[in-house]
Amino acid sequence: RGKRAFIAGIADDNGYGWAIAKSLAAAGAEILVGTWVPALNIFETSLRRGKFDESRVLPDGSLMEITKVYPLDAVYDTPEDVPEDVKSNKRYAGSSKWTVKEVAESVKEDFGSIDILVHSLANGPEVSKPLLETSRYGYLAAVSASSYSYVSLLKHFVPIMNPGGASISLTYIAAERIIPGYGGGMSSAKAALESDTKVLAFEAGRKHRVRVNTISAGPLRSRAAKAIGFIDMMIDYSSENAPLQKELSAEEVGNAAAFLASPLASAITGTVLYVDNGLNAMGVGV
Ligand code: NAI
Predict the structure, then answer these.
(1) Cα(46)–Cα(48) distance, integer angstroms
(2) Which of 39, 126, 282, 283 is most open to solvent, judged by the fewest CB atoms within 10 Å of its CB?
(3) Ligand 1 site: residues with CB under 6 angstroms?
(4) 1 CA distance to ligand 1 centroid (A)?
């Protein structure tokens, strides 16, 4: 039987989630997607109208199939956590069962189990503010959407993950080195995500024989990255200073994720894998 993957954090064809889905599909996996509730409508409409058909083409010429798209808001674990104003918000009221626990239940009902869980989402409402100017609200919101969302996803999905399964998230070098401009507590959120990768690798490994790794990706012009505001500068900086002087493609991150999710990586867990043209290894730019 082919493997089944659930990828949280796809709302268009520009981000890392989409590229990971493609690499996994090319390797024969069945693709399920979790899409942020406010972005669901436009994503599903675009998909249906063929707007993504060009970017759905796999190496063998066939088109990637997405078996099912689930609405998801990863900052809420159960319906009891959802505040009234969100519940009654027009964009949310049109969908149902989008808290993390409910999505895991729906996937279990629909498919029974999965083999691969991918977390490709982040959000920091104050990302453009320096840490020194970040509010408590902004900081906690960044950690809730970008770090705890992963703990929660794995917690709710690991019971339906087959032994030997793998889980992957996306992190950024700002967790460990100073990247001015990556503010609002987003650097803190990525540091938490990387530390949690180790602890979750232990817990999920011992209890469920599931591997947990994170990919520290180089800069990509995704929707989320454009919102931060310095992505073009980071891409230029990398091209100038990294050991490999080329622009990073989302596909290169997708392929690394497919490797980490495959039996080729059966002894790899608890790691941060850099897929960044080697930029992390530089001490000074030259
Ligand atoms: P993206 O915009 O394609 O993906 C982010 C997704 O998160 C979007 O689809 C958005 O709808 C979703 N999202 C936001 N809040 C959510 C919530 N509460 N519940 C569910 N979904 C939610 O952008 P990108 O850049 O591909 O991001 C994917 C991951 O890659 C993120 O973890 C990001 O931090 C990481 N990353 C990105 C880099 C870049 O330069 N683009 C570099 C290193 C890491």
Answers:
(1) 5
(2) 283
(3) 9-11, 14-17, 36, 39, 72-75, 120-123, 145, 170, 172, 217, 219-220, 222-225
(4) 30
- pLDDT tens digits, 217-262: 999 999 999 988 899 999 999 999 999 999 999 999 999 999 999 9
User: Which of 28, 4, 8 is CA-nearest to residue 16?
Assistant: 8
Q: What would the pLDDT profile of 83-107 be if each residue is shown by its tens digit?
A: 999 999 999 999 999 999 999 999 9
Six token digits for residue 90? 């027009």
Q: Chain centroid to CA 11: how far?
A: 11
- Taking the CA of residue 234 as reference, the ligand 1 atom at the shortest distance is 40
Catalytic (active site) residue 172: yes
Atom of ligand 1 nearest to the CA of 231: 40
Taking only the tens place, the pLDDT of each residue in 35-52 is 999 999 999 999 999 999
Q: Residue 256 corresponds to which tokens in the numbers above? A: 């690394």
Going by CA atoms, what residue is nearest to atom 2 of ligand 1? Answer: 224
Does the complex come out with an ipTM higher than 0.85?
Answer: yes
Backbone φ/ψ region at 270: left (φ over 0), alpha (ψ -120 to 50), beta: left
Whether the CA torsion 125, 130, 131, 136 is positive or negative: it is negative
Q: What is the pTM of this model?
A: 0.98
Active-site pick, 150, 182, 237, 274: 182
146: DSSP letter:
I
